[in-house]
Write a structure and sequence with these properties.
This protein is α+β, with helices and mostly antiparallel strands. It is 41% helix and 15% strand. The protein contains eleven helices and nine strands. The protein has helices at residues 4-22, 52-61, 74-79, 81-98, 134-153, 170-186, 207-216, 221-231, 261-268, 272-277, 303-320, and strands at residues 107-114, 126-131, 190-197, 234-240, 243-244, 248-250, 282-286, 289-296, 331-335. The strands form two sheets. Strands 1, 2, 4, 5 and 6 form a five-stranded mixed beta sheet that branches. Strands 7-8-3-9 form a four-stranded antiparallel beta sheet. Helix 7 (207-216) runs antiparallel to helix 8 (221-231). The chain is elongated and about 70 Å long. Residues 1-14 and 26-40 have low confidence and may be disordered. Keywords: Signal.
Length: 349
């Protein structure tokens, strides 16, 4: 329970922070619900402003996080949010309407986390998770909700991507691939399964390619301007064993640990599916892991050439999109039509 003097101090901190954030956003006329524009079924030119109730729901429904960049702990902000909802709503709506993300929202404290119980002495075993200010993540959630709804309503997201999608998981990806291989074997066909893994995929996303992809999907106007601002001029500091590095600028990538990062990554990867399907392969993805597979008659002499051609085009697509395959985790598996068949494929991606 907060005392009266403590609550006043916290409110003062929030008001001061509000003034600092607001000064970084270009002043615009007040916005109304009528400013939300979708000129056709595949166009989103601006984001809809939020009501105070919308902002309150976003703040109270969010899991409390710990970030050194927050002026006060998240759980305290949530406890007194009703007193400062008008100010927080103003920050969010000013940002959405102007297409500008405050620079304070684009700073991250990176905390390297060990991916699995692996050797902690190897740098490649760590994932660089970005700790971001709570209010900035609230703003991201406002954009995420509208951007994802636009993509879902217009069927713009890859239906074969199980990552970052409600009602989907690693299990749905596994079941989809397993069932396809089972049906092929039941039809007396052999199958090839290729497991692709990307190196530091989130960190190497090219912003101009991503913005071009968003534009082709129908994002324009201040909505596209906001996303450009979100991606631009980001910075980070690394925190390790009580020490903090100097601030560094980010010219590529989307932050791991952000709200929008996973959705933007999925959008960035959408055109890969057509490259795979062009060669007659099926595929399923979970985040940056892609499984491509196809079934064939056991005596088909064209299998090796088809695999090579598909992997060659995938490699070209990866190069064009500034992504790199992790060859140590990329595998090719063969599922024979029955135990009497033995396929000997030796192909490097």
């Amino acid at each position: 329970m907060l005392g009266h003097s403590s609550k006043l101090s916290l409110l003062f901190l929030i008001r001061l922070t509000t003034l600092q954030f607001s000064s970084q956003i270009r002043q615009e006329p007040s916005v109304t619900k009528d400013n939300f524009t979708m000129t056709n079924a595949h166009s989103l030119s601006s984001f809809s402003p939020l009501s105070e109730m919308d902002v309150s729901k976003l703040i109270l429904s969010s899991h409390p996080t710990t970030c050194p960049l927050d002026p006060i702990p998240t759980h305290l902000l949530q406890a007194i949010s009703s007193s400062d909802i008008p100010s927080l709503t103003h920050i969010i709506n000013s940002s959405l309407h102007s297409g500008t993300v405050p620079s304070a929202f684009k700073q991250a404290r990176v905390s390297p986390l060990l991916k699995k119980p692996l050797n902690p002495a190897l740098l490649e075993n760590y994932r660089p998770v970005s700790l971001l200010p709570f209010i900035s993540k609230t703003l991201e959630r406002a954009v995420f909700n509208q951007l994802s709804m636009f993509h879902v309503q217009n069927n713009l997201l890859d239906s074969n991507q199980s990552g970052f999608k409600s009602g989907h998981s690693t299990e749905t990806a596994l079941l989809s691939v397993t069932e396809a291989l089972r049906l092929a074997r039941a039809a007396s066909k052999s199958s090839v399964l290729i497991l692709l893994d990307l190196s530091a995929a989130f960190d190497t996303i090219n912003h101009q390619i991503l913005l071009s992809t968003l534009r082709k999907m129908g994002i324009s106007g201040t909505a596209l301007q906001w996303l450009n601002s979100y991606l631009s001029d980001r910075s980070f500091m690394v925190s390790w064993r009580g020490e903090v590095s100097k601030s560094q600028q980010l010219a590529t990538g989307v932050p791991q640990g952000s709200v929008l990062g996973p959705l933007l990554f999925s959008i960035y990867m959408t055109s890969l599916g057509s490259v795979i399907q062009k060669h007659g392969f099926s595929y399923h993805c979970y985040a940056d892991d892609t499984q491509l597979y196809f079934s064939f008659q056991p005596d088909d002499p064209t299998v090796v050439a088809r695999i090579s051609a598909c992997l060659s085009d995938i490699s070209s697509w990866m190069n064009d999109h500034h992504l790199q395959l992790n060859l140590t985790k990329t595998e090719l598996l063969v599922v024979p039509a029955n135990p009497s068949f033995h396929h000997n494929f030796s192909i490097q991606p």
